[in-house]
């Protein structure tokens, strides 16, 4: 039976991908950093859980041993290209049938963001390896709304991006389902690049209005600096995100995240999650719970 390795198996795409693949009858090996409650949930779901660091070649080789297909995803931060080189080498040694690589919609060689440029370089690394690879170029996740859910609870909708900049946010589980369907047909999708967006394009101001409508509360769009934004969400010491978000602010103004792609619904054969559905699925995170006593 085919075994598929899922990196970042507790993440917004990795966790639902594990469930989709198990449901489809694949063996799933889930790579995580630590043995905690989330790792136990993966075991209980039916996955084989392994531990390791994508920047440790010994760990990567061990994780890919006996695997036929693999999902590569790396968080915003230093080390992406090095991790891709190690992953590609280990995948080549194992003669993998397919890698699905998470990239960015604005991936290009001369990107302002080092993180974005490194995604483009990683795409090249996987292509050079000769291992069939599908690159998923993703727009902003709907999970961005969860970054500011604590602010939304108190009536603030804050973003570091220009209010007129446009994009079509996509839910993590739609990306996961797309990857799962690609894994099911490697001969069809290997070597392809797919741009994945959500079903509806919004400006940031329009998205704030849609969130306001769904929650039934007034949430005027508020633009702040990237530094202030990271302070508000508790990531003030994350230098990698600071530099990346500052560059993406310009990418947005240049329209590099604008537009809607039909790749994900075509591959999945079903409509994508809407912003309204996403908010309702996570509604408790956006609303104050008045049943709890004040602290």
UniProtKB/TrEMBL annotation:
Domain NmrA-like: from-to ranges: 3-255
Family matches, as InterPro entries: Ergot_Alk_Oxidoreductase (IPR051604), NAD(P)-bd_dom_sf (IPR036291), NmrA-like (IPR008030)
Cited Gene3D superfamilies: NAD(P)-binding Rossmann-like Domain, UDP-galactose 4-epimerase, domain 1
PANTHER family per the UniProt record, alphabetical: PRESTALK A DIFFERENTIATION PROTEIN A, PTHR43162
Protein name in the entry: NAD(P)-dependent oxidoreductase
Organism: Planotetraspora thailandica
């Amino acid at each position: 039976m085919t075994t598929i390795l899922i990196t970042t198996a507790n993440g917004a795409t990795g966790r639902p991908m594990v469930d989709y693949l198990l449901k489809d009858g694949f063996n799933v090996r889930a790579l995580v950093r630590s043995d905690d409650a989330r790792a136990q949930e993966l075991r209980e779901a039916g996955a084989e859980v392994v531990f390791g660091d994508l920047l440790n070649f010994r760990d990567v080789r061990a994780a890919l041993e006996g695997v036929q297909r693999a999902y590569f995803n790396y968080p915003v931060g230093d080390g992406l290209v090095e991790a891709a080189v190690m992953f590609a080498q280990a995948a080549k040694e194992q003669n993998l049938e397919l890698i699905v690589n998470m990239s960015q919609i604005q991936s290009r060689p001369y990107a302002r963001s080092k993180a974005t440029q490194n995604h483009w370089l990683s795409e090249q690394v996987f292509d050079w390896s000769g291992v069939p690879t599908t690159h998923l170029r993703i727009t902003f996740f709907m999970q961005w709304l969860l970054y500011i859910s604590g602010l939304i609870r108190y009536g603030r909708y804050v973003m570091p991006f220009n209010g007129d900049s446009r994009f079509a946010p996509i839910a993590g589980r739609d990306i996961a389902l797309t990857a799962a369907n690609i894994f099911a047909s490697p001969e069809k999708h290997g070597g392809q690049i797919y741009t994945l967006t959500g079903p509806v394009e919004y400006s940031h101001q329009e998205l704030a209005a849609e969130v306001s409508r769904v929650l039934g509360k007034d949430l005027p769009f508020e633009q702040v600096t990237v530094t202030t934004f990271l302070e508000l969400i508790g990531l003030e010491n994350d230098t990698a995100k600071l530099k990346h978000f500052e560059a993406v602010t310009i990418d947005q103004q240049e329209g590099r995240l604008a537009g809607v792609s039909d790749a994900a619904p075509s591959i999945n054969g079903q409509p994508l999650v809407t912003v309204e559905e996403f908010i309702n699925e996570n509604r408790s995170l956006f609303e104050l719970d008045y049943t709890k006593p004040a602290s």
